[in-house]
Design a protein that fits this description.
Elements (H helix, E strand, L loop, with lengths): L3 E15 L12 E10 L2 E10 L5 E13 L9 H26 L13 H16 L1
Helix pairs in contact: 1-2
């Protein structure tokens, strides 16, 4: 049995707003991803969200929260919560991708499918940005 248990997720916020005037450009649209970890004893809460830039014909913003439990007695490698951060994001990201794809698919615009992300690299970059901003 794994040392971490995924207890499910919930949608905290979901907004979609079409722009009245938009000139379609053939460029790649950009989006932002953000995260937050909250650890309380053997429980970790993870928030993962996304929103798009102004290059879209609409604005969207989605925030989900996943709940995880840590079972110390089953952690034979002693990795703890900190090492599990990338796994937690990797578990939640497909839910976020699905929500964005479904909401945008029912609009008059083309559905948005967020690309897959290497969460280990994503966290390394986020940690580096945080370290640089503190210096």
């Amino acid at each position: 049995m794994a040392a971490f248990k995924f207890n499910g997720f919930k949608v905290l916020r979901m907004n979609f707003e079409a722009k009245e005037k938009f000139v379609k450009d053939d460029q790649n649209y950009e989006f932002n991803i953000g995260h937050d970890f909250s650890i309380n004893g053997t429980h970790m809460s993870v928030k993962l969200g996304t929103n798009n830039t102004n290059d879209f014909p609409f604005k969207y913003n989605v925030l989900i929260q996943g709940e995880f439990d840590y079972v110390d007695s089953e952690d034979s490698d002693g990795i703890g919560f900190k090492a599990f951060r990338a796994n937690a994001l990797a578990i939640l990201f497909p839910y976020l991708r699905t929500i964005v794809a479904q909401v945008t698919a029912i609009s008059e615009f083309e559905a948005v499918t967020l690309p897959t992300i290497n969460m280990i690299q994503y966290l390394e970059n986020a940690d580096l940005r945080e370290t640089n901003s503190q210096n």
